[in-house]
User: Which sequence fits this backbone?
């Protein structure tokens, strides 16, 4: 093999693991991309800020949806289905949850917001979705979410839907739920 | 298979070894090309048999022949085998045979790796096919193996599937590296980049695409493996992962893969149309630039496979326009092929018939692709038989017709014998009619709303499905004629001259027919 061929070969052989790594790099890149653009309807925890509070807000209806992931036997429902709110004010909504089984279980709720361009304007101070929920057999709980819809919400949006899917993660107990622990401005 | 040839030009030359070891240990690009081509033919017949089962089940509404679970395994294996076992190895086989001869090189740059990249392939497919006999059956989640269908809900055999995809990937990557190193470093003096035959150009670009995306596919299946066995949550929403992420990674591989399966076809068809038009190809450099732009664009259009997952509007518009942009270089190519034929002194031998059918039918497939690129229309067409019709139009009368055309065109050079022209034409017309009767009606049932990947359907789709099945049986069984023609040619027939076709250009036509075991041990003179 001549010198040129060896050079080409080395370049290509290096390219292969780099592209393999790139495939894995797509995972965090994808999260960062969603975070920056607010796509995917992902909502992250935000800190309290007086700037967000507005005297004169717009009326808005905030709808809650709860879904059980397959094989998740818990009862999981919003306390109210629709909340008439104003932008720029804090509200607390609750979801009732009950472990209907006879064994101790751990659950995780994963939020999503529709329309997706509203996600960046929905600020959550507290949310049960930021942590795991552990319930004893038959135990019930009222799970709070404290939130504010910023005044900068695009004016064509009159209705925001906040949905939660609850997953049984009893078997995944040791796994860090990284994607829900990112703190955003 | 090519006979043993005495070569009188070089004293130290020797023919191939005798017996099975010739094929096991061979490092000769022609032997390996032959192995690849026969392997791909075998896979084509196996994948084709699966297609026959699918069409037999769909002949009438209701469940007649197979269980739904088995039907799902058939559609999955049909897709995987045709793509990774049929089309891709066939193109690698053609590259092995032709690239060294076209650029005046004595062999591929890395002959031992060449042997390895072929010989791991049968094992990959043995593993994949063996999953049919495993508990829980073969993979049943479609060739796109979307998570969580392929992770949480997959049969246990999915691990074997993952391993076999790893092996296929390794084989393709090694093949691609070999092609790039050969083309970049072993061209005969005087063969500049812009003087390379278009098949060589098409393979150079294809090889780069393979090196870029096959490792990403390997990454995707590795993540699946980790999700299934090692408790990670790449694609598992319960653990903070995201199933949509799988689709992004898969199609980042999947869309360039589509062009991997069509670019070499562009090269082949350019040669054949040029030869049988007896004119120089129209617009050589624009052909090269068109292929390069298609390859580059292929990296920024992946999400058009996912318009319905809930992409934001801005992304849908971007991917729609980027996808439509691909029609421009593709249109340039179709224009050039037609312009080459314009006022040429055309003859219609079998390879030319396949090549012209390629241009016409591939364009139909391209146009239905353009329709699918329109976001609002795609919401309607997504996952219907319209999509099935689209990709079969670009893959069967596209990629596969080009491979058949290539076999008819170069088999005199490979075997030293002319094929039977009458049988070849018969094979063409049976295939041409069969393909259109099979896939054209699928446009109609797709637009009418029949979803893909179901073993049963509503009554209003019955008539066109029956027509489609009849066409499929015609197309399927006429491929046995192809097998017969190839075998007949290899075993004997009218002797071919070294020029073979009076209008053919290129270095491969300057060597004897059949091509000696070793060619261009001393580089040829090219002006």
Assistant:
């Amino acid at each position: 093999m001549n010198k040129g061929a060896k050079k080409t070969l080395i370049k290509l052989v290096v390219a292969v693991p780099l592209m393999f790594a790139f495939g894995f790099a797509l995972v965090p890149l994808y999260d960062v991309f969603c975070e920056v653009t607010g796509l995917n309807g992902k909502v992250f925890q935000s800190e309290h800020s007086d700037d967000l509070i507005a005297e004169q807000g717009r009326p808005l209806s905030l709808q809650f949806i709860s879904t059980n992931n397959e094989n998740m036997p818990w009862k999981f429902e919003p306390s109210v289905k629709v909340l008439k709110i104003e932008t720029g004010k804090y509200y607390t909504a609750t979801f009732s949850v009950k472990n209907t089984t006879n064994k101790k279980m751990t659950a995780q709720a994963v939020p999503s917001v529709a329309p997706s361009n509203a996600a960046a304007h929905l600020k959550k101070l507290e949310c049960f979705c930021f942590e795991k929920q552990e319930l004893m057999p038959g135990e019930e709980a009222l799970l709070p979410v404290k939130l504010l819809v910023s005044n900068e919400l695009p004016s064509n949006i009159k209705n925001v839907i906040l949905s939660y899917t609850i997953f049984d993660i009893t078997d995944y107990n040791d796994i860090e739920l990284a994607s829900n622990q990112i703190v955003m401005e | 298979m090519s006979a043993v040839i005495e070569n009188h030009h070089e004293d130290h030359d020797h023919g191939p070894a005798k017996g099975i070891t010739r094929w096991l240990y061979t490092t000769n690009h022609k032997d390996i090309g032959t192995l690849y081509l026969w392997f791909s033919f075998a896979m084509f017949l196996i994948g084709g048999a699966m297609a026959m089962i699918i069409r037999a089940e769909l002949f009438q509404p209701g469940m007649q022949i197979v269980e739904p679970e088995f039907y799902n395994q058939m559609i999955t294996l049909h897709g995987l085998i045709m793509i990774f076992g049929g089309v891709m190895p066939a193109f690698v086989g053609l590259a092995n045979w032709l690239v060294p001869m076209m650029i005046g090189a004595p062999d591929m740059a890395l002959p031992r790796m060449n042997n390895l990249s072929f010989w791991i392939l049968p094992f990959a497919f043995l593993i994949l096919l063996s999953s049919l006999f495993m508990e829980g059956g073969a993979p049943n989640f479609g060739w796109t193996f979307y998570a969580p269908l392929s992770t949480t809900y997959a049969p246990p055999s999915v691990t074997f599937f993952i391993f076999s995809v790893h092996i296929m990937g390794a084989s393709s990557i090694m093949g691609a590296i070999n092609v790039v190193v050969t083309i970049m470093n072993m061209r005969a003096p005087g063969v500049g980049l812009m003087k390379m035959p278009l098949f060589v150009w098409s393979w150079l670009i294809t090889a780069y695409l393979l090196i870029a995306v096959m490792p990403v596919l390997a990454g995707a299946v590795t993540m699946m493996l980790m999700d299934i066995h090692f408790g990670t949550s790449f694609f598992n929403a319960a653990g903070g992962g995201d199933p949509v992420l799988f689709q992004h990674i898969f199609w980042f591989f999947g869309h360039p893969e589509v062009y991997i399966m069509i670019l070499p076809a562009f090269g082949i068809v350019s040669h054949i149309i040029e030869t049988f038009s007896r004119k120089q190809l129209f617009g050589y450099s624009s052909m090269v630039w068109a292929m390069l732009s298609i390859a580059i664009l292929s990296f920024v259009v992946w999400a058009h496979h996912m318009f319905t997952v809930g992409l934001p509007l801005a992304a849908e518009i971007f991917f729609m326009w980027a996808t439509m942009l691909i029609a421009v270089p593709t249109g340039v190519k179709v224009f050039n092929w037609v312009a080459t034929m314009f006022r040429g002194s055309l003859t219609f031998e079998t390879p030319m018939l396949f090549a012209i059918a390629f241009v016409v039918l591939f364009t139909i497939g391209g146009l239905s692709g353009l329709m699918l690129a329109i976001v609002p229309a795609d919401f309607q067409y997504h996952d219907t038989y319209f999509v099935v019709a689209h990709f079969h139009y670009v893959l069967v009368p596209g990629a596969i017709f080009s491979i058949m055309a290539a076999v008819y065109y170069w088999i005199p050079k490979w075997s030293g014998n002319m094929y039977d022209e009458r049988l070849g034409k018969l094979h063409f017309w049976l295939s041409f009619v069969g393909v259109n009767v099979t896939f054209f009606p699928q446009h109609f049932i797709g637009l009418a709303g029949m979803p893909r990947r179901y073993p049963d359907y509503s009554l209003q789709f019955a008539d066109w499905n029956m027509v489609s099945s009849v066409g499929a049986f015609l197309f399927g069984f006429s491929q046995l004629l192809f097998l017969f023609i190839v075998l007949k040619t290899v075993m004997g027939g009218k002797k071919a001259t070294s020029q073979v076709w009076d209008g053919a250009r290129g270095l491969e036509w300057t060597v004897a027919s059949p091509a000696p075991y070793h060619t261009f041990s001393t580089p040829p003179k090219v002006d």
